[in-house]
Amino acid sequence: MTDERPTTLGVLLAGGLARRMGGGDKPMKTIAGRTILERVIERLKPQCDQIILNANGNASRFASFGLPVVADTIEGFAGPLAGVLTALDWTAAHRPDVEWVLSTATDCPFLPHDLVARLQHARISKGAQLAVAASGDQVHPVIGLWNVALREDLRHALVVEDMRKIDRWTARYKLATVTWPDKPIDPFFNANTIEDLAEAERLVSLDL
Q1: 6: nearest Cα among 110, 104, 149
Q2: CA atoms within 13 A on the CB side of 131
Q3: Measured between alpha carbons, how far is 146 from 134 in angstroms, rounded to an integer?
Q4: Domain residue extents for the chain
Q5: What does the angle CA 104 – CA 109 – CA 111 come to, to the nearest 5 degrees?
Q6: What whole-number distance in Å separates Cα of residue 165 and Cα of residue 205?
Q7: In this predicted structure, what is the pLDDT of residue 208?
Q8: pLDDT computed for residue 57 by the predictor
Q9: Which of 84, 85, 166, 203 could join 141 via S-S bond, C-beta 3.0 to 4.6 A?
Q10: How confident is the model at residue 203 (pLDDT cuts 50, 70, 90)?
Q11: Can you tell me the mean pLDDT for 139-156?
Q12: Which CATH superfamily hosts domain 8-206?
């Protein structure tokens, strides 16, 4: 890790129910013989000082990946914001030296190698409190940089205000948005359906 980038913890949000794939753990689906989760970890490991996995249910199903598995701290399926809050709470308790958490979905096998560096640079240069990724003309609010100091504000939004949409919460803060090109491959391509998995198999050859 370089001294130019603030210490950053990565959280992989694996709370989705994968209904469009017939259920099960979406990140455990395979692309060219490797699980999506394995590909996501490979992309983020060089960029983050530590990685944790946010998942509910039996944590042992992810044991082979060697990551701390942390269940939602808010009961009920409250969506990705609950996973972000869980990561902020875990970081405050276990890594008090870390101020920034990067979140990403676990169905994005082609994440950019400069994801953390560019989000941190944009946040710092714009004096922003949060940063999110975009590609082409689409913002990806699940893929973002979060300040641990905002965790009580987020808890209030989730528990008291029953807020679920990420962009509703991020709209309250100064936000930096960083855009990546979506050609020849969208780095935030996400595999939601069986058809998407087939497309991902085709895209593997284009991935650099």
Answers
A1: 149
A2: 23
A3: 16
A4: 8-206
A5: 55
A6: 34
A7: 54
A8: 86
A9: 166
A10: confident
A11: 97
A12: Spore Coat Polysaccharide Biosynthesis Protein SpsA; Chain A (3.90.550.10)
User: Which helix (H) or strand (E) segment is 160 a member of?
Assistant: none
The 10s digit of each residue's pLDDT in 169-201 is 999 999 999 999 999 899 998 887 777 776 777
195 phi, psi to nearest 5 deg: -65, -35
The two three-digit tokens of residue 123, written as one number: 């946040």
- For residue 149 the two structure tokens come to 């100091």
- Which pairs from 77-81 meet CB under 8 Å and 24+ separation? 77/15, 77/17, 78/158, 78/164, 79/15, 79/164, 80/13, 80/15, 80/105, 80/142, 80/166, 81/154, 81/157, 81/158, 81/163, 81/164, 81/165, 81/166, 81/169
pLDDT per residue over 4-51, tens digit each? Answer: 689 999 999 986 544 333 445 778 887 878 888 999 999 999 999 999
In which residue are the tokens 């989000």 written? 119
Model pTM greater than 0.85?
yes
β partners of residue 10: 51, 102
- Report d(CA 130, CA 12) in Å as an integer: 18
Helix boundaries (H) for 49-170: 80-94, 115-126, 151-159, 166-170
Question: What is the rounded distance in angstroms from the CA atom of residue 69 to the CA atom of residue 56?
Answer: 8
